[in-house]
Specification:
HIV Type 1 Reverse Transcriptase, Chain A, domain 1; 3 domains; five-stranded antiparallel sheet; 8 helices; elongated
Length: 378
């Protein structure tokens, strides 16, 4: 038996915008398809039945279409292009592109660019939010990036208003459930000092102040725990801080903060402390300070610093008792994982300053600022 010429196919994958291929989708079966968006290995394909398939969200098998070649038979003859394909092709501006253009880079290059931009953003605490990276995650056919950016900005403002309204509603509900419907008329202070109602109200007022300074992406003026959203047994700890248990009388050394000789480092340290003051993490003392805690700056990234508050330098750690606690290791962590789980590495801002310092520890954590403003030669 004489064999005929081999069947020949058009190029692909990858497929370019405007290519006609064969698309096997369970819902529609095997059909001809026109590539309207290419970002290999993801494609948007218009089937000849009129439905549009996004292969990044729908399981589909793609085959190159049959090509014309000398000696072909009717069985593999190239098909007549459907009218819907002809009409779509006339409206395409990126026909022939494989996705390597400004508005739709291929997946690998886009991820590399995003990783580089994000790496630069996280090195400095004051770096701006890379909003464009978030905007690029959302796209609709026929909507430009500028129009999409304006729409997303409006939606984020609406979402922020919804967040504030929900937070205020939750605060009021908590006060009513915890202290009664007449909580607004009850005393905040008693003979023994501030009452539980007063402590809750003070914490909630601080929380609302921080929340009012936020935007969709960032707590621009700092943050405070919403203690009423914690389990009941932990709500007071989240509100007031963890009590400090002293085994020995607390030290009372008020040594001077070491001078910073480098003017540039001193200026960056001063900016960091000023930021902490603006965010109300540091406040003027209302009771006598017994001990000053040392602090210093360590480099972070190319031009930023990270503040370290050292409680070991003034002997405070030697006077307090800390209970033992279980700490997972890599081996114990892996036991909890399987092939369906994902893990992420997140850098959470203000995680040290965000938690309340218990009033029993406040007298032993004074921060002296004179050395940041005096000349180191004086």
């Amino acid at each position: 038996m004489e064999r005929g010429p081999p069947v020949q196919f058009n190029p692909g994958p990858p497929f370019a915008i405007g290519d006609i291929l064969l698309c096997d989708v369970e819902e529609f079966g095997l059909q001809k398809g026109l590539v309207t968006r290419a970002d290999h290995p993801s494609y948007e394909i218009c089937l000849d039945c009129g439905h549009v398939v996004d292969t990044s969200a729908t399981s589909a098998v793609l085959f190159p279409s049959y090509a014309e070649w000398e000696g072909n038979t009717n069985k593999f003859a190239p098909y007549v292009e459907p009218d819907i394909f002809t009409k779509l092709r006339q409206e395409m501006s990126q026909s022939g592109s494989y996705g390597m253009h400004i508005d739709a880079q291929n997946t690998a290059l886009r991820l590399v660019d995003e990783a580089k931009a994000y790496a630069k953003a996280v090195k400095a605490d004051d770096a701006g939010i890379p909003v464009q990276l978030w905007n690029d995650r959302i796209s609709f056919a026929g909507v430009g990036s500028e129009v999409m950016g304006v729409a997303l900005t409006a939606l984020r403002k609406l979402g922020w208003l919804w967040f504030m309204k929900s937070l205020l509603r939750d605060c009021i509900r908590f006060m009513k459930e915890r202290h009664g419907a007449d909580w607004a008329r009850r005393l905040r202070k008693g003979r023994e000092g501030i009452t539980e109602l007063g402590r809750d109200q003070t914490a909630i007022m601080s929380l609302l102040w921080y929340s009012a300074q936020t935007d969709w992406f960032e707590y621009t003026a700092g943050s405070r725990l919403a203690h009423f959203r914690f389990p009941t047994r932990y709500q007071k700890l989240a509100r007031d801080g963890v009590p400090i248990y002293f085994e020995l009388p607390g030290p009372t050394t008020k040594g001077a903060q070491p001078q910073i000789a480098d003017p540039g480092l001193r200026a960056r340290t001063r900016d960091k402390i000023a930021k902490v003051l603006r965010r109300r993490y540091l406040r003027s003392p209302v009771s006598p300070i017994k001990l000053n805690i040392k602090y210093f700056a360590v480099p972070k990234g190319e031009a930023d610093v990270r503040m370290v508050y050292d409680a070991t330098a003034n002997g405070l750690n030697e006077c307090v008792w800390s209970p033992p606690f279980w700490l997972p290791t890599l081996n114990t962590l892996v036991r909890c994982l399987d092939e369906d789980l994902w893990m992420t590495d997140r850098d959470m801002g203000d995680m040290f300053l965000n938690f309340q310092l218990h009033e029993s520890a406040v007298p032993f954590t004074g921060v002296q600022l004179l050395s940041l403003y005096d000349s180191p030669t004086r």
